[in-house]
Amino acid sequence: MDPIRNVLLPQPIEEEALRLLHKNGLNVMQAQGTDVSTILPLMKQAHAIVLRTGLKVTDELLCEADQLLTISRTGAGVDNVDLKSATERGILVTSSIGVNTASVVEHCFSLMLSLFKQLPFLDAELRKGNFGIRYKNIPRDLHGKYLGLIGFGRIGSMLARMCNSCFSMQIIAYDPFLQESVREKNSNWVTFADLPTVCEKADVISVHVPLTESTRNLLNMQCFEKMKSDAFVVNASRGGVVNEDDLVEALEKGMIKGAGLDVFQNEPPSRDNPLLKMHNVILTPHSAALTRECVVEMAVSAVDRVLDVFNHFIPDNIVNPEVLEQEQWKGMSKKTKTET
Q1: What's the CATH code, domain 101-283?
Q2: Catalytic status, residue 286
Q3: What pLDDT, in 10s, does the model give residues 109-125?
Q4: Can you give the pLDDT at residue 4?
Q5: CA angle centred on 136, ends 275 and 163, rounded to 5°
Q6: CA-to-CA distance for 319 and 307, rounded, in angstroms?
Q7: Domain ranges for the chain
Q8: What is the pLDDT of residues 129-171, one digit of tens each?
Q9: Dihedral angle at the C-alpha atoms of 211, 212, 217, 223, nearest 10 degrees?
Q10: Residue 244 in 3-state DSSP?
């Protein structure tokens, strides 16, 4: 490894990952905040950034990054990185995609189950002394219902397998970017359809696509108008994929039954966000992947990729692989099993 490499941490990371940085002789620069005025002076010294969600790495910041080699996200999404600017500057951007799959699937299923079984409502009624609410038969079964998926990647497909095998749920999915070979492989148990058809058939829709210009506001009023009045929406991907104003209107008008949301258009949501006052919505603070076990694994994975770059190995999960064609990266090699 080249001497004296500086790793910038805009936010603290887990102790296990921090120890790994120190063990490998790296100089850790812990920022005292994520505002631009704090981060900007540190950019010139940084050779790597281990990035959580609290900072957006903009072109303004990258203009100061004279020595920056890589940005390693602890999470799966890279929407808080200006990929175009990073790529132009030859900076490798990587993510921990796949590390949080099981944790997010568990969270999405928890939201689904809570919505169908109406757990928050029944809990509140019992605490009021209304034991007789049990005779209203408000909960519903998942068994045999239609699970509509927007996105059939790692998370969406794992959720689908679990719901299909354990609860005999019918799976219908929309994913225009899915490889044809994957469609054919799963066609015996998944119906792949267009978005309007998924919306019409689903008893619950779960969103599993990244936030891009093509997916922004993908789930909107046109979709809600097609959905069943007793259907639910679950979103643990990115808030911008669902048009939040349209969702609020659909919930208020009873166009859909309810929603389980881990992500929001603006985070944290403002105190006057109507969703916070709705009793047919279950909300969590973008915490699907933030389990005790998963945050450690994501942070350690992010540090491992930084170490690979410093050791001239090609890291996993490169988001902008075209950077490897640039001259400065020509000497990179793949890590063998004995080097892992």
Answers
A1: 3.40.50.720
A2: yes
A3: 999 999 999 999 999 99
A4: 83
A5: 65
A6: 17
A7: 6-98+292-339, 101-283
A8: 999 999 999 999 999 999 999 999 999 999 999 999 999 999 9
A9: -90
A10: helix
Given a cut of 60, is residue 338 above it in pLDDT? no
Q: Which of 134, 267, 279, 339 is catalytic?
A: 267
Query: From CA 31, how far away is CA 36, in angstroms rounded?
Result: 11
Confidence at residue 308, expressed as pLDDT on a 0 to 100 scale: 97
**Is 6-98+292-339's fold the same as 101-283's?**
yes
**Pairing outcome for strands 48-51 and 27-30:** unpaired
Q: Is 267 a catalytic residue?
A: yes
What CATH architecture is 6-98+292-339? 3-Layer(aba) Sandwich (3.40)
CA angle, residues 154, 283, 165, in degrees to nearest 5:
40
Exactly one of 140, 161, 183, 286 is catalytic; which is it? 286
Over residues 273-285, the pLDDT tens digits come to 999 999 999 999 9
* Catalytic pick among 238, 244, 297, 305: 238
Please confirm, yes or no, whether 292 is among the known catalytic residues. Answer: no
